[in-house]
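[job 0412] stage=complex_fold ligand=heme C status=START
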Amino acid sequence: MRPLFLAVLVSALLSASVPAWPAEIEPLPALPPIPADNSMTPQKIELGKMLFFDPRLSGSKWISCATCHNPAMGYTDRLPRALGHAMSEGPRNTPTILNAAFIKAQFWDGRADGLEAQALGPIQADVEMKQTLTQMVNNLKQVPEYVTRFKEVFGETDPITPGNIAKAIATFERTLITPDSPFDRYLRGDKLALSRDAREGYRLFQEKGCTACHNGPVLSDGNFHHIKVPGSVDEGRFKVTKNPADLSAFRTPTLRNVELTAPYFNNGSVNTLEGAVVVMGNEALNTNISRKDAVLIADFLRSLTGTMPKFDYPDLPYTRY
Ligand code: HEC
Ligand code: HEC
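[job 0412] stage=complex_fold status=DONE, emitting structure tokens
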């Protein structure tokens, strides 16, 4: 009894005196979380990939998910704010969907809970694909190959439904992950995977306190923070919760592959990584980050670019309707 009591007392005292363990960045796991009701099968991934690239999901039959989440550009459009239906400009910057599968709250304001819930949003949004779910389902039913593939994947009598379309797209998105970046190799023990400058940048990133929000496998805490980025007029999370405390709060974005996804922030207001680092210092941490330190931190951030997903582009069936 006695030694046990002592051990408990000592550990209680220690945990009271030691400050909270600093938030850690973790290597990217090989697989993201997969929901119990949406298993990953090769056929479903293939179908989701077709839908992702198929502009016939849009009202104009001209815009696909890949129009804005372009695989050749880090799954973004590299525009300050997205251009959608009839070239109308939306209010926000297109985030990458690489590794989005590791984050629960989707969109800058977290209004969709997971990839399945997210997928039908852009299809219906007026400034994105401007299509009704009924019309989209009717259109896909005209394509015999889709009818066969949906039957194969979902085994239902009437499987072309908005819910199954979302499930297939989300399944494809779960394959869009970028493991094995130089930084992952460094975390696994290969100290030479990072240049001296990137290592110094990593030290500064931790020392300045960036890891308070940019932590975990994708360097996002999945939480909402109010950061005054240049020119932002967006109500952010407030639009979802109507809680005044959430006014202009946005979900911490992933920093994986961030060198590929400029311009930065919810409104795409900053063009360079170094510039974004300086804004973060001022607005998130109330610290002035020198130009020299910003360059080193940006060097570290560039080490977060991983191996891009490799796949064959789908051959979309040609069917007029
Ligand atoms: C017109 C450009 C455009 C099209 C087309 C588009 N998106 Fe997006 N996507 C965006 C923008 C802009 C946002 C951020 C919107 C917001 O936060 O309010 C976004 C956000 C997302 C996110 C959330 C990522 C995150 O980090 O929160 C996912 C996932 C996503 N889109 C997938 C898709 C899928 C799947 C499709 C096709 C069904 C699609 N997008 C079509 C522009 C587009
Ligand atoms: C209090 C939480 C918090 C801290 C601390 C923080 N960030 Fe951020 N970071 C965010 C949020 C939230 C955004 C999105 C802001 C927006 O667009 O409105 C963001 C955006 C970014 C972006 C732009 C990413 C993109 O895709 O647009 C970069 C780069 C970045 N942070 C780097 C850093 C660095 C470097 C530090 C430390 C100097 C840091 N952050 C500290 C929460 C934080």
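Residues 42-173 form a domain with the Cytochrome Bc1 Complex; Chain D, domain 2 fold (CATH 1.10.760.10).
[job 0412] exit 0
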